[in-house]
Design a protein that fits this description.
Blueprint (H helix, E strand, L loop, with lengths): L13 H13 L12 H8 L2 H6 L1 E6 L8 E2 L5 E2 L1 H13 L2 E6 L5 H6 L5 E2 L7 H5 L12 E16 L16 E5 L3 H16 L4 E5 L2 H10 L4 E5 H10 L6 E4 L5 E9 L3 H17 L1 H8 L6 E7 L4
Parallel strand pairs: 1-4, 1-5, 7-8, 7-9
Antiparallel strand pairs: 2-3, 6-9, 6-10, 6-11, 6-12
Helix pairs in contact: 2-10, 4-10, 4-11
Length: 308
């Protein structure tokens, strides 16, 4: 069975979905006006001395989330994020060192300066920007984001959808599986309260990887799983030749994926925003998205801290 993925990101309401998408599509809050000179030279010149001297960017990434980041047949990282990271490295003329890191260790390792940035289908949301835990308590300094892609959340069910699941409300009285500490976890937590008001308890199985969550869906231990749309679509298309899962209903939430950097690293943040803008303008960005069949999530330009 091919590798599954994991669902990761704090969630947004339908209104927030539209707002987040509008930011990336319109460029509001973006990285500023294009430079009149050579944008590639300008971006390279603004790369901070530490990274320029090292000749590399260390990128924290949980390489277990196809098609966004996963290991190919040769064991090397591949997917949307590795391709974009490598393209940004070419623009900035630095090597990209991917540091495979468990998802819940990405921010701690970034704050400990073990990596320069995090790029791991990582949603730009206020909780992460302000360093808050699920109770609203500040537990770290927070991060800044350079947003580059828009993703929603989908419901994955067994092929044929035997339980007729179409919406989150259809999960009431049933069991759903997902990866813990993610957007999907937050969605399910809110849905538990919704289901409780109807008298039909929603049971949530929180696993440490999305692979385990999808395995529960496959075995029947859960009627459905929650995933980012690109990952849900990939699992449905590739697992057992497309005969194991399907995606049902519409996307319930959306938020931008962002490249996360430490709050104090404003020069690196702004350099990355310029590099993302150049990648988009060059046309290579669209080619990368098309390669992974995720063109629907395209942004028109980089946005700094554009999440809701």
């Amino acid at each position: 069975m091919p590798q599954f993925a994991h669902a990761r990101r704090p969630a947004l309401s339908g209104a927030a979905l539209a707002a987040a998408a509008a930011l990336l599509l319109s460029g509001c809050g973006g990285s500023g006006q294009a430079d009149p000179g050579d944008p590639v030279k300008d971006a390279r010149a603004k790369l901070p001395k530490a990274q320029r001297s090292a000749g590399a960017l260390r990128v924290g990434m949980d390489v277990n989330y196809a098609p966004v980041e996963f290991r190919g047949p040769d064991g090397k990282p591949t997917g949307l994020d590795p391709d974009i990271a490598e393209a940004l490295g070419r623009i900035l003329d630095v090597r990209i060192d991917l540091v495979d890191t468990p998802f819940d260790k990405l921010v701690p390792n970034l704050q400990a300066k073990q990596v320069d940035l995090v790029m791991s289908a990582f949603s730009d949301v206020r909780q992460r920007r302000e360093g808050l835990d699920e109770t609203g308590k500040q537990v770290n300094p927070g991060v800044d984001f350079v947003d580059y892609f828009i993703a929603g959340t989908s419901i994955v069910v067994p092929k044929g959808n035997p339980k007729g699941i179409r919406t989150l409300d259809d999960l009431c009285g049933k069991t759903v599986a997902l990866q813990q500490a993610t957007t999907q976890d937050e969605i399910a937590t809110r849905q538990v309260a919704v289901c409780a008001r109807t008298g039909r308890q929603l049971t949530v199985h929180r696993l440490d990887t999305d692979a385990k969550a999808l395995a529960e869906v496959a075995s029947g231990a859960a009627v459905a799983g929650l995933n980012d749309f690109p990952v849900a679509a990939y699992a449905a298309k590739t697992t057992d030749g497309g005969n194991r899962f399907e995606v049902t209903g519409g996307q319930s939430t959306s938020s931008p994926y962002g490249i996360a950097v430490r709050k104090e690293d404003t020069d690196l943040r702004d350099t990355l925003a310029k590099a993302v803008d150049q990648l988009i303008r060059s046309g290579e960005y669209d080619k990368i998205l098309a390669k992974w069949n995720v063109s629907a999530g395209a942004a028109q330009n980089a946005v700094v801290n554009g999440g809701i």
